[in-house]
Amino acid sequence: MSFEFPKTFLWGGAVAANQVEGSHVSDGKGLSTSDVQPFGAMGELVDRQEGDFNIKDTAIDFYRRYEDDIELFAEMGFTCLRISIAWSRIYPNGDDAEPNEAGLAFYDKVFNKLQEKNITPLVTLSHYEMPLNLAKQYQGWASRDVIECFTRYAKTVFERFGDRVKHWLTFNEINVTLHEPFTGSGLPRDCSEQTRYQAIHHQLVASAKAVKLCHDIIPDGKIGNMILGAMMYPRTCEPNDVMQTLTQNREWLMFGDVQTRGYYPSYMTRKFKELGVELNITADDTEALKETIDFISFSYYMTGCASADPAEMANASGNMLNMINNPYLQASEWGWQIDPVGLRYLLNFLWDRYQKPLFIVENGLGAKDVVSDDGKIHDEYRMAYLNDHLFQVGEAIQDGVEVLGYTSWGPIDLVSASTAQLSKRYGFIYVDRDDQGNGTLERKRKESFFWYQAVIQSRGSALKAPTKTKSE
């Protein structure tokens, strides 16, 4: 690839506290909603009993091994690391009067280490977890009271870390409440549409209030949203399929529209009416929403197809999503369809819609990596996947899209969010631990480690043009 990415482009990886840290009740940390999801976001919820196994209780022990892991990220040449702060490590119950100093001190050490290695932190305030007490006592984001709890937390971390952290995100994949209400908002899975959208509204207001706090407390900081980029294609060019696709894409675009424009789009007025949803929106809410984000970040793993035919939609699948398979695409071991060109399309689509800088903060391939007889992990499939996606990012930049950076998910093996498996490996760094918790937690560089290192060093010029497929 003769094209070089801009010098300011941020290269790195992304992790989440509940999927890497472990130490789930150490140093004053409270239980989070993630701690009662031992089988992942798509699995059963359980009450914690002493002695119960939850692989996330230790995860990959980043809480104790963060220095060594950051050294490995630096060796790869990272200029950015996306992490999340565990809200219940700072406010164990969510509604505490004072923060937990031990939790703040831990992140002090992490950010100091990143600063030492010249790695820019990109920090998510809430990544698929909230203090469990807020879900139990307040019904999660269904309660307006949680807005104040969140803004108190945001203010605390902005004031504590704002001298070292200049890039922030509010909620991870904020649109996931539509598909997994407990994971996204601490709501019962059988909650009504009224409850679900009122909780989403509270999150959007809380996000906007956090944006204002960030602007006030960290004048040189930037804060964005984060959405699950679930781009849909029409299954056919039949007009009703095209309209159905527009409707389904608007389900997740609404979150970008509100956070970018500062008000609900008109198509949601009709949707709320059809659903019988009547949001409680105060004058303060309306004013708060006007504080808009500085950039748009998103995850991208796959695309899917939409159809107006109920019989076709009955066969839809996808990771927490409702998508019809695209016959022109191949799929991963977990059935996620692989569409590098879709990333270029999504980047152009969002740029045309919002004209705000974009940041790809999750993209990667989960696979069952195997240590070969030579002691190495030959993950050429991962290198091919990332090469083809990053190549399309370069194409989008040449199209004129402003892309701030790319943080692959996850640069080190971690516990998957959807299924709580460690065997679903994403990393450039192998972690010796299996789904039953066996292993030494030893870190080992995969072949892709050195490939990504070369890509970063070359500012993308080491990428190769992908082999043409039928979809292209």
Short description:
It contains 15 helices and 12 strands.
Mean pLDDT, as a whole number?
95
Q: In total, how many beta strands?
A: 12
Shape: globular
Kindly report how far apart the N and C termini lie.
18 Å
What percentage of residues falls in helices of 4 or more residues?
25-40%
State which percent range the strand residues make up: 5-15%
Structural class: alpha/beta
Strand order of the largest sheet: 1-2-3-4-5-7-9-10
CATH topology (fold) name: TIM Barrel
- Number of folding domains? 1
Cα-based radius of gyration, to the nearest Å: 21 Å
Spell the H/E element sequence: EHHEHHEHHEHHEEHHHEEHHEHEEEH
The CATH superfamily bears the name Glycosidases
SS element count, helices: 15
CATH class: Alpha Beta
Low-confidence stretches: none
Largest sheet: 8 strands, parallel, barrel
CATH architecture: Alpha-Beta Barrel
Task: Explain what this protein looks like in three dimensions.
The protein is of the alpha/beta class and 472 residues long. It has one domain (10-457): TIM Barrel (Alpha-Beta Barrel), CATH 3.20.20.80. 39% of the residues lie in helices and 12% in strands. It contains 15 helices and twelve strands. The strands form three sheets. It has an eight-stranded parallel barrel, surrounded by five helices. A two-stranded parallel ribbon has the order 6-8. Strands 11-12 form a two-stranded antiparallel ribbon. The relative contact order is 0.14. The model has no long low-confidence stretch (mean pLDDT 95). InterPro entries: GH, GH_1_N_CS, Glyco_hydro_1, Glyco_hydro_1_AS. Its EC number is 3.2.1.86. One of its GO terms (cellular component) is cytosol.
